[in-house]
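Can't paste images in this forum, so I'm doing it all in text. The chain is below; anyone willing to post the predicted structure tokens underneath?
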Amino acid sequence: MRAANTYMSFLLCPPNYYNIEYEINPWMDKSRGAIASLARQQWDALYRLLTQTLGITVHLLDPIAGQPDLVFTANAGLVFQNQFFMSRFRHAVRQGETVYYEKWFREHHFQIVFPPDAFYFEGEGDALWVGNNLFLGCGIRTDHKAAVWLEEALHHPVYPLELVDPHFYHLDTCFCSLDSERVLYYPNAFSAASQRTIQTLIPHAIAIEEADALQFGANAIVIGNQIVMNTDGTSTAGETSAARCVSLTKTLNQEGFVVHSLDFSEFIKSGGSAKCLILKIEG
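Text version of the structure:
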């Protein structure tokens, strides 16, 4: 099965050095750590699904020792046409990633645009398109000032959305653009004013349940009418258990989407799932 009439390319980074080496969100616990072999299996399953089943072109960023979160390429920046709007990470432990992203995008002939020093901006983790409008998660990782900068640079409307729950520290953990008129979102991740913004500006805003949000149901990859999202993980016997987000999967099926369920349990230990592992380059 391939996504019909859809061309996209993504940037991914293999999880060679992925681990939980610090704690910068409520999901992370150094004492628990990540199981390297299982993380690799889960990442490989995503890579195969994207390339072999859905026909996506995948570019690879070289993994770097000492940069465990380089695997979460969504946070690298925001690609718009031939421009790469570089992230400026809030936490010092992630700031070392930017030199590797800059190198990759320069080598691939993108124009690099750096954010001013006056604020933080964490890329596609917080910047998501709905049609021609860009919605920007603000208040936890990305600063509100980034909205003005992006709107002037992109010449498209940018709407800041205030995030209020540290478990949903990036927009892509609680908000998913399905197409130009439909999104998934978890209401309690946003301020009341931002909930009204979503409901006013987006014709069909689908609220998801807390249980589905906590299973990273909104942290999904959308490719035409195909959606890649998290499942329940693996039991101690090594058998894949039943899919999480049962209610959300039913809703998406009713909306005309085909859901591809994969296990991202090792990456959820760091507060990321399917969408966090890809950066859209084209399409």
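The first strand starts at residue 9 and ends at 12. The two ends are 18 Å apart (CA to CA).
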